[in-house]
Amino acid sequence: TPRVFSGIQPSGGLTLGNYLGALKRFADSQDQGVQSVFCMVDMHAITVWQDPEALRRQTRELTAGFIASGVDPEKSILFNQSQVAEHAQLAWIFNCVARMGWMQRMTQWKDKAGKNTQNASLGLLAYPALMAADILVYHATHVPVGEDQKQHLELTRDIAIKFNNDYGVDFFPVTEPVIEGAATRVMSLRDGSKKMSKSDPSDMSRINLTDDADTIAQKIRKARTDPEPLPDNAEGLAERPEARNLVNIYAALADLTVDQVIAEHAGQQFGTFKPALADLAVAKLEPISTEMKRLTADPAEIDAILRRGSERAREIASPILAKTYEIVGMVR
Ligand code: TYM
Questions:
Q1: What positions does the record give for the motif labelled 'KMSKS' region (predicted)?
Q2: 152: containing domain
């Protein structure tokens, strides 16, 4: 039976990239009747230093972001990683299955560890094994993510295959990454060659889910573009990363295809298209930020949701971990 799993790090604010690449698609997939499990990956977050009070606040804010984006904590399972110990327990086993070389090849490791890898945390290197455990401890079959997580999901498949081979079993499923839609890689508003990221030093490069209407409109007005009008077909965007990014964002927000957006706006100058995009973005995002504010005002309610979600998650994860221990030869 199909089961969806995905996770987001509570390591800072949510961006439009997180919304279009992940949250909005989670809400859409949940309504297709598949069981969905969504996780605030607080143990991944601490692979780089997090202030404890900030981590608590960001975990609650992220939970509010899921709910405000349309993920229903009754239909889906919504919880934080550290409350289901089975993730860490399976991750240890995967640490012993995965090879050092696999980890050192990951582009996220190379980016985040920087030049002085000797000073990076051991957890940062092992990050993808914990991610594989997140997914496989539920025998999840489908993992909706943005483009930047593709390499990690390939490693998850490699870990599942090697475990099955090493132990001569057909136990862990080989997971399908689901990277679909117009906005699987939302780019910086200042530089069409960089992805939109919460860690970019320029706040003008991104739209935060907590931005107010004026800020959203201003950031879109000031977004970098070229001087040409919009083309009359999608191929006309191939060499125009900034223009393509704005069209992709429009398409994803409006639930249209890129071709439909082009058909509607062909020949328009950015002086016309940007205000239309700003209106659309404000209309879609403002209700989310309002709802996030409302929800975070009651942290006890959010904590209760995460606790209930964790109990439901453990009901699935616990027998899968027990079976794994048996396969590996741990005496119970
Ligand atoms: P994270 O927290 O960096 O991002 C969460 C999700 O948002 C997507 N995303 C984007 N999509 C489109 N355009 C962008 N600019 C953009 N920026 C971020 C990411 O692709 C992701 O889907 N390692 C993961 C968290 C994780 C996970 C997992 C995901 C841990 N365990 C198991 C799936 C399954 C991460 O750091 O995502």
A1: 195-199
A2: 3-178+299-328
